[in-house]
Please model this.
Amino acid sequence: MGIIYTLIFGGLVGWVASLIMKTDGQQGIFLNIVVGVIGAFIGSWVMGLLGGDPSTGFNLYGFLVALLGSVILIGAVKMIKR
Model:
């Protein structure tokens, strides 16, 4: 069951990040899930570097950390594509 929750959580985070970064029309559900899951790892890493709590979970703090990482990921991809 954990993997299903992770995929749903990643999809939701990736979708919100794509709305913030205005890339929703370019991404499908699969890419939203990938962005959300990878973004959670990036967000956790960034929070660890900043001295925050790097642990994430299925709560509001975990959502915000994953969202931060997802926005960073989409921003980096947009910079590379230019």
